[in-house]
Amino acid sequence: MKKNLSVAMAVIIGVIVLAGYFFRDQLGPVLTLIIDWGILLVSVLGLLGIGYLIKSHITKLIKKEKGAFNSVVVLLAFISVLVAGLILSTENDIFQKLILTVQIPVEASLLGVLAVTLMITSLRLLRTRGWTLMSVGFLVSAVISMLVDVAFFQTEPGSPADEILKFWSNLPLIGARGILLGMALGGLLVGLRVLLTIDRPYGED
Amino acid sequence: MTLRMVGWVVIGLAAGLLGFLTIFLKRGRHYPIRTHQIARLFSSSQEASIERGLPRQIVLGHQLWSYSYPGLGLWAIGALPVFLTPEASADGLLSVLTADGALAIMARQVAEQTYHDGYSPFLSQTCAQIRLPGLTPLAFTAGFLSGITRQPYGTLSLLGAYGPESLLWVDAVQRRDGMAMAAAGTLAGQAALYAYVQNILIGESIFMLPNLIKPGYSSQASLLTEDILRIILIASLIIGTMLKVLGVL
What we know:
By secondary structure, chain A is mostly helical. Chain A has 7 helices and no strands. The two termini of chain A are 15 Å apart. Chain B is α/β, with parallel strands linked by helices. Chain B has 10 helices and 6 strands. Chain B is globular and about 60 Å long. The chains are: A mainly alpha, B alpha/beta. The interface between A and B is large, with 58 and 74 residues.
């Protein structure tokens, strides 16, 4: 009974949401209500997730696992931000500065590491993938796109070279659109499999 | 014909084909499923990791829903049961990681449901651990990197929506002699990982992953539908371009 109820609810809500995109005038209010409920539920799940994060760090601390000191830092930072947010409110300038002063340098340093890793990876591409048409094409395209993006080539507006440059800057967008079309196709099938109850991630197989 | 009508036609055709082929293939017909090296490599790496008692991790990405990639989070959750086999999680070294609270809770539900399905609750005590190392992509990266202290490492499976920061995770895993398998979600993630990961699925291929690992009639129907739709899409694009060039459209 419980299993059938969850299946029925998933199918009915899925079909209403899908139909709502095509019959906006008729199903608009129902669609808004369902989406609002969805957002509310996801927000509650997000809150539970934060509780889960805290619980896992407390467990790590109690079990004295390796890296437990990191958990102390995380918990202290969490409590400080929570208390500061409750006292000052999230709109407060001091609170925002306090958060951003820590967050931006920390994330920027990780992005710096990522940039270096990306550069090394690009250099090792041919070693990893071998001298195939795809790998050479990938590398050449990446280098040319990078040079085009940083305006390395300067051309006269309207000249044939300018047209070639414009074509080259549009090329990645065309490729991306192709990949996104394919992904949309895959996504459509994932949704339909859930709607047709072929896949039941919310219940038993 | 309006875009709305095109949408109806595509969705209707996909639903009709999927329903028909599922019933058709359920009656014992066979569609030769595509084989991909990634499934074989993943299975052998997973088995070796279990035998050697090495940690395995599944990353579900950092978003349940996003405007650019709406289906990725849901797909990751849908694909999860394929990875949560009793053999894979019996030693308690399998963990599922995500940067999204909602994904973490849903993954927990999926894991518990899977383990209650035909198995004793006593056997499910050592099921996969669901972890949330951080709530933003970079916080997740920091948490993930500080979490993989063990050397050597087993298998890392990347599903869902994640960006180029995944390169840092894969780099850390490969430095510990681990194997990384990616069904890369976002375009930036695909581009970054293509250069570094041998076992990678990109574009619509990512949605094939569960079907490749656990083939069955419903998977075959899904793959066949995807193939037919893909051919129709390619043909439509070519015909549309030709008609545009000829000035008909």
